[in-house]
Structures are given as C-alpha cells and as structure tokens.
Amino acid sequence: MAVPELETYRLEFENIRQQARQLTAGLDEARFNWRPTPSAWSIEECLAHLTMVGQWEIVEIEKAIERGRERGMTGQGPFEYRAIDRFIVDRTSPPVRDPLPAPERFVPLHGQPVTAVLPTFLHVQDQLTLQLERAGGLDLRRVKVTTPISRFLKMSLGMMFAQVAAHERRHMAQARRVKEKLP
Q1: Which domain holds residue 93?
Q2: CATH of the domain at 42
Q3: In principle, which of 15, 140, 164, 172 could form an S-S bond with 158, CB 3.0–4.6 Å?
Q4: What is the pLDDT of residues 9-21, one digit of tens each?
Q5: Distance (Å, rounded) from C-alpha 77 to C-alpha 67?
Q6: Contact (CB, 8 A) for 35 and 91
Q7: d(CA 158, CA 144)
Q8: Distance (Å, rounded) from C-alpha 173 to C-alpha 75?
Q9: What is this structure's pTM?
C-alpha cells in the first residue's frame, strides 16, 4: 500500500479494532447489552450498527473498485476532494454536533451476545483493510462509491474510506461513554 492516505486509513481501522477489543474485554452479556437510558444504545448496539453499515459499505466499495479497475481509473495522489465529500466526513466525525437517527435498515437488534457481535465486527475491519489494499493505484478522487446515506449520493473512494473511519470513531466514542457509565 504505497499511498500514504490509504496507510492512514489502515492504521485507523487497526486502532478501531483494538478499541473494540478493549471495550468488550471482560464484559458479560448483561453489561455488553446495558443501556444508560431506554432510548440510548448499548455497546452491543454501537458495534452491531457499525457492522451492519460496514457490511453494506464494503459491498459498495468492492463494486466501485471493480468499476475503477475496468475503466483504468488509476492515479498516484495526493488527491483533492470535493467540498461535499469533505463536509460529509466532517459532519460524521466526532464529536457529535448534530445527532442523526440511524436509518431503519441500520438499526441493530438489541440483546445480541458479545460472542456473535465482536467477531463479526472484527471481520468487517479485516474486509475494510482488504479493500484498502485493493484500492492501491486507483485514482481515489475519481472512483465513486454509493453512500449509505442515499443511493443518489456518491463519494470519492478516498473520502468514503475517511467517512467509514469517521463513522466508526463516532460510535466507538459513544460506546466508550456507555462503558464509563456501566453500573
């Protein structure tokens, strides 16, 4: 992975992986699923949500990489991104300024076991890292990816990786706040 931008994202996904392990270390099912308030998400729901969104994003990223390769959309970088892409990443990044409800299709079931959620979440991190490797050599600005926000909104591949990492950081911070409140 010769592109410094992709290496930055790889390190972010590795850091998020480590955070997830630390957050869940020693938690029993009750604590993993505990909610600070009835309307707040548990650590389980934060990780399950990221898994659901991540699985969807990986499929779209794979498609975009394939299209980019087929069309010969190569580039070296550094890449300049559109203002809308940077705005979306900024609004997704923690700290949360304007909380938005998750789309219904990405609202996780409550009460899943840590033994199911954590390995699946870690697998998503592996798949994201694999996509980073596959993206090497592509023009990260010109290759476009459909977003989970709307099928009509497309982001550049580089900014999609940035948005995925920002979204994960946002919910990992949320999960840390839940852990700090555990009874």
Answers
A1: 4-181
A2: 1.20.120.450
A3: 140
A4: 999 999 999 999 9
A5: 19
A6: no
A7: 9
A8: 34
A9: 0.94
